[in-house]
Amino acid sequence: MKKRTAICCGIFVFVYVGFFLSFPDFFKYPAVPPDKGSGEKIIVNIPPGQGFALTARTLHEAGIVSSLSGFRWIARIKGADKKIRAGEYLLSSDMSPHRVLEILTSGKVLLRKLTIPEGHNLYQIAAAVAQAGLGTREDFFRNATDAVFADEKGIGYQTFEGYLFPDTYRFPKSAGVKKIIASMLKQFRSVFTREWIEQAEKMGFTVHQMVTLASVVEKETGDPAERPIIASVFHNRLRKKMRLQSDPTVIYGIRNFDGNLTKKHLRTHTPYNTYRIRGLPPGPIANPGRASLEAVLYPADTKFFYFVSKKDKTHKFSENLKEHNRAVRKYQLGKK
C-alpha cells in the first residue's frame, strides 16, 4: 500500500514539474500584466446577468487580458467566475489578471462625476445628468416634476425645483435618476438644518417660501458679497406688500425664452411674473446654494427697496424710487 502511494506521488510530482517546465508562464500569469500593455484606461461595462464566458471575451477584446483561456482558468481556480458583479469598471491594459478579477468581484464600479452649479434649474440639471451619462434629459425631468414622487419625498410641492442641492456628486452609471434626485434632496436637508427651519418660522415663512425666495436671490446675484443686501431688498418689499419685480422670475415663466426680455414679457401674466403678482411666485425658479439660503434667513439690515445693475456684476441700491430712477438713468441709460 505504501509502495503504491509513493509511486502515485512520484507520478504526480513528475507531471507537475513537467507541466511547470513546459508552461512556466501559466503560473506567472495571474500576477503579471499583459506583455504589451499600454496602460490605457478603458471603461468596461458588465451588464446584469451577463455570463462569465462573455465577460472574459469582452475583457480580451478590449485588451485588458492577453490570454482568454488563461484568464478563464485563473478565474475558475479562484472561484471568481461566479462572483463578478455587474457594473461599469475603469480598467487598464497593464493590470494583472489577479487585479482585474479583484476589481470585478469587489464591486468597485466607476463613479461618474456630476457637478451642479448654484442657480441651475431643472432643465439645466437634466442636461448635466445626460452629459455625465447618468440618464436622459427626458427621464430626469419627468421624475423631477413628478408630483407623486415629490409627495413621497415630503417636498410639499409639485416638483423638486429648489431642492436639488448644488454640489459635486459621484454616481455609478446604474444609479438611476430617482436615486440621483433623492441624493440631492438628502444633501439639501443636511444643509437646511433644524436651526434654519426655526429661523424661517420665526420670520413668518415656511421652508418652501424661503427656498423660493433664496432661488430669486441666487438668480439676481452677480457679486456674492451682495446676497444679504439683495435679500434685504426683497424682504423689505414683501413687508410693504410691494411687488418683487424680479426679471429672473419673469424669465422662468416664459416657455422657450430666447434671451431677450421685452416689455411685453413684463406685462404678460404668469404665475411667476412678479411684476404682475404680489408676493412670492408659487415655487423656486432655480436651485439655490448655501449662501443664498443663508442670506434670506439672515438678511442685511437695510432700508433699500430697489436695486439696478451697474453692468459690472454689482448693483446700485436705493431707498426710494427717486434715487432708483436716477440710478437707472446713470447705469442703464448712460445719462448723468
Overview of this structure, please?
The structure is a single chain. With 336 residues, this protein is mainly α. It has 3 domains: 22-106, Endolytic murein transglycosylase (Dna Ligase, domain 1); 112-191, no CATH class; 194-302, no CATH class. Helices cover 48% and strands 9% of the residues. It is built from 16 helices and 6 strands. It has helices at residues 2-22, 24-28, 52-61, 68-78, 97-106, 122-131, 137-144, 147-152, 177-191, 194-202, 207-220, 227-239, 247-252, 263-267, 290-297, 321-331, and strands spanning 41-46, 87-92, 111-115, 168-172, 306-309, 315-318. A two-stranded antiparallel ribbon has the order 1-2. Strands 3-4 form a two-stranded antiparallel ribbon. α6 runs antiparallel to α7 (137-144), α11 packs across α12 (227-239) and α11 (207-220) packs across α15. The relative contact order is 0.09.
- Outline type: elongated
User: What separation lies between the terminal Cα atoms?
Assistant: 116 Å
The biggest sheet, with number of strands, parallel, antiparallel or mixed sense and barrel status, is: 2 strands, antiparallel
Question: How many individual helices?
Answer: 16
Please trace the helix and strand order, writing H or E for each element: HHEHHEHEHHHEHHHHHHHEEH
Give the strand order of the largest sheet, numbering strands 1, 2, ... along the chain.
1-2
Radius of gyration: 31 Å
Structural class estimated from helices and strands: mainly alpha
Mean pLDDT: 89
Strand composition percent = 5-15%
- Residue share in helix: 40-55%
The low-confidence parts are 6-32
